[in-house]
Amino acid sequence: MLNHQKQSDLFEVIAEVNRRNIIDLLRVRPRSVGELVESSHLSQPGVSKHLRILREAGLVTVSKESQKNIYHLRPEPLMAIDHWLEPYRQYWSQWLDSLEQFLDDEEKS
Question: Which PROSITE patterns match (predicted)?
Answer without folding.
Answer: HTH_ARSR_2
